[in-house]
Amino acid sequence: xxxxxxxxxxxxxxxxxxxxxxxxxxxxxxxxxxxxxxxxxxxxxxxxxxxxxxxxxxxxxxxxxxxxxxxxxxxxxxxxxxxxxxxxxxxxxxxxxxxxxxxxxxxxxxxxxxxxxxxxxxxxxxxxxxxxxxxxxxxxxxxxxxxxxxxxxxxxxxxxxxxxxxxxxxxxxxxxxxxxxxxxxxxxxxxxxxxxxxxxxxxxxxxxxxxxxxxxxxxxxxxxxxxxxxxxxxxxxxxxxxxxxxxxxxxxxxxxxxxxxxxxxxxxxxxxxxxxxxxxxxxxxxxxxxxxxxxxxxxxxxxxxxxxxxxxxxxxxxxxxxxxxxxxxxxx
Length: 332
Ligand SMILES: NC(=O)c1ccc[n+]([C@@H]2O[C@H](COP(=O)([O-])OP(=O)(O)OC[C@H]3O[C@@H](n4cnc5c(N)ncnc54)[C@H](OP(=O)(O)O)[C@@H]3O)[C@@H](O)[C@H]2O)c1
Known about the structure:
Elements: E1 4-10, E2 23-29, E3 38-46, H1 49-54, E4 72-79, E5 89-92, E6 99-102, E7 108-109, H2 127-139, E8 148-150, H3 156-167, E9 173-177, H4 180-190, E10 194-197, H5 203-210, E11 215-220, H6 224-233, E12 234-242, H7 246-249, H8 261-266, E13 270-273, H9 283-296, E14 303-307, H10 312-320, E15 327-331
Parallel strand pairs: 8-9, 8-11, 9-10, 11-12, 12-13, 14-15
Antiparallel strand pairs: 1-2, 3-4, 3-6, 3-15, 4-5, 5-7
Helix pairs in contact: 2-3, 5-6
This protein binds NADP nicotinamide-adenine-dinucleotide phosphate.
C-alpha cells in the first residue's frame, strides 16, 4: 500500500465554465483510522453534473480548500471496527480522494450479483439508474406503447432511461444529444428510434421531424429550449419528468425560453421535478427490475471509464463538455 494519499480540493468559485485551475491535488500522509472506523482505498469514483452546482457559493456546496465529496467505491484496507472487514468493497460518499476514513454508518454494503461488474453500482444500479427508474416509473408513470423524448440522451441518465423505457414497453424513443456521433450511437447501440444533435437548429424543428406525431412523455435532463420545445410537442395528458437543468449550470443568469403556459391547461399536461435522494427506498426495486436483464444480456451498461485518479478533474470537465457516452466513471 502507498504511504501517501491524494485529495482534490476546490480552490476558487468559477464564473461560467470551470477549468482545471479551480482545483488542486493535495498530498498528505495516509490517514489512520480511529477506533470505530476504517481506512478505505478508493477504486472507482463518480463525477456528476451536480458537482458543478456544488462548486458555486450555494448552501451545502463545496467548501474551498476542503476535500470534495462524491459517490465512490473502495476496498477496506485497515479496519478498527468489527462492522467493516478488511478486503470488502463498500459504497460511500468520501470521493475525489484516493483514501478515506469512514465510519460503518457512512458506508453501504453492495449486494454481489454474479456477472455484474462493480462499475454498475455507480451507473445502471447506482444513482444514475435509480434516477432513470424513478423518472420513468414514478414521475412520468410511463405506460406501454407511449412515445418518449429524452434530452441529454447519450449521458448516464439518458442512456439508462432509453434502455429502461424499452424494457418497460415504450413506443417511439427519441433522444437529443450534442454531436452526430453520439446521435448515431443512440440509434445503433442504445435502442433509440431517432436522435438528433441539438446544435443543428431550433429544437422545436428537430423534434418535430424526429417525432412528427408528438410525444407522451419528456424526460428532461437539460431544461431551456429543449423543455420549451417538448411542451409544444406533448400530446393530451402528456408528462414531463424534470430531472436536471444542465444547460444552465455553466451559464449563470441564463433565462429559460418561454413555453406556452396555456398548453399545460389545454393539453392537461403534468410537469414534475424530483431528486433521486428522496426515492432511495426504491433501490431494492431497481435491483429486482434491472439485475435479471443485466444477467440475461437484454440490458447493457453504458459507461465511459477514465483511468487514473490523476485524471479525475479532466474527467469531470470533459463530462460537462459532453465528452462522455453513458455514465462517466474514474477508475484507480
Ligand atoms: N434529479 C436528480 O436527482 C438527478 C440525479 C442525477 C442526475 N441529474 C441530472 O440529470 C442530468 C444528467 O446527468 P448525468 O449524470 O446523466 O450526466 P451526463 O448526461 O452523463 O453528462 C452530462 C451531459 O450533459 C450534456 N450537456 C452539457 N452541457 C449541455 C448543454 N448546455 N445543453 C445540453 N446538454 C448539455 C453533455 O452531453 P451532450 O454531448 O449531449 O451535450 C454531457 O455529456 C443532469 O442535468 C443532472 O444534473 C439529476
